[in-house]
Amino acid sequence: MERVRTGIAYDCDVLVIGGGIVGLSTAYAITRAAPGTRVTVLEKEPGPARHQTGRNSGVIHSGVYYRPGSLKARYAVRGAAEMVKFCAEYGIDHAVTGKLIVATDRSELPRLHALVQRGRENGIPVRELGASQIQEYEPEVRGLAAIHVGTTGVCDYVGVARQLAGASGAEIRYGAQVLRVDRRPDLGVAVRIRSGEVLRARVLVNCAGLHCDEVARMTGDDPGMRIVPFRGEYYELARPELVRGLVYPVPDPAFPFLGVHLTRGIDGGVHVGPNAVPALAREGYGWGVVRPRELGATLAWPGSWHIARRHWRYGAGELRRSLSKGAFTSAVRRLLPAVTEDDLVEAPAGVRAQAVLADGTLVDDFLVREGARAVHVLNAPSPAATAALPIGREVARRALAVLAAG
Question: Can you tell me the distance from the alpha carbon of 154 to that of 270, in angstroms, rounded to the nearest whole number?
Fold first, then answer.
């Protein structure tokens, strides 16, 4: 027999915390899969896409890097095609440029070949290039060998987020920071925001990005991980004519970071970066931003110390490139010998919300977990923007299943 509940006035069926591209894609997917479902999105900033979504290279990733069968591989390949189609349909700036992944040292050649195999396993067309063929695509770039991935592109992800918000039919509440969550498994969730208002919903969806683990704990669920924030620092190339498209180094498979790369954006400018250094706050976009409570929580997590012990050499190199523009320039010159320090103009940084387990494992794949009346997106760094549409559908599917069960 269906239980009859009286006396509760729900403000919505599904309450989404986080107005980045994943939260907005989830709201969009819910209203398309189940028209009539009342969705509210809470975003603490005055507008959408103010953090990871709006502070990255703007690349539509092909999926060439990701382990075959992983969510990242499946969703990036599918999401890239869908993102291009979405941008074309709604007139959002985008371009399918292709990209080069360039080996500059003999030790990188086996890893480059492994990427060729991985790309083919993921169904991505990859062309292998010798040293002389690199200049057909990028006259100023030098390397021993490279691969060309034709399906990579760039787009305006902030524009995508705005379109998702407008087309979702959801109520989007900006300036609505969540302070407290009260969950009753037999009833739903009540969320108090900074204004003092309380909103009641049947299901909570946590897409809070840099704060997703905190929201999970606030809800009463143990996420089993912590977000350790890594800042990525960028420069703008003063001579953008040096780069035609997208140029990447061969990544180290031990890390989820892709290394300092060159990205011609949709505005014609060329972004150079990012590196990856520990941030001193969840939203620590510069060395001067320190939040002691957040820093203390990072240092109290055992996984942070395991990372430091295991990867201190890698970290020292990244730190050096952060503190020394000359060191950063040297890293860029491995790919682009013509670049000088004067060519690099400081640009806004981003912060990656990286999930880390207690043993120091950097969570490699997207991570979505469920609790009573809740769905938590706990790891959605790059390529989450590329994969936002399929991620949103998966999170929506889970949220609607929880809604139906309740």
Answer: 12
What pLDDT does 4 receive? 39
- Of 344, 307, 308, nearest to 324 (Cα)? 344
Interatomic CA distance for residues 138 and 129, integer angstroms: 12
Mention every residue, 6+ apart, whose C-beta is less than 8 A from residue 353: 52, 209, 210, 212, 227, 229, 282, 379, 380, 381
The confidence band for 258, taking pLDDT boundaries of 50, 70 and 90, is: confident
C-alpha of 402 from chain center: 25
Cβ–Cβ < 8 Å for 25, 387:
no
DSSP structure class, residue 156: -
> What sections of 91-151 are H helices per DSSP?
109-121, 131-137
pLDDT at 256: 64
Kindly give the residue spans of alpha helices, DSSP state H, lying in 143-225.
157-167, 212-219
The arithmetic mean of pLDDT across residues 155-177, rounded, is 97
Residue 384, pLDDT above cutoff 80 = yes
3-state SS of 214-262?
HHHHHHCCCCCCEEEEEEEEEEEECCHHHCCCEEEECCCCCCCCCCCEE
Specify whether the CB–CB gap between 379 and 367 falls below 8 A: yes
Q: Are 374 and 183 in contact (CB under 8 A)?
A: yes
Say how far apart CA 311 and CA 355 lie, in whole Å: 16
The answer to whether the CB of 75 falls within 8 A of the CB of 57 is no
Q: Whole-number mean pLDDT of the chain?
A: 95
Please give the backbone phi and psi of residue 401, each rounded to the nearest 5 degrees, phi first.
-65, -40
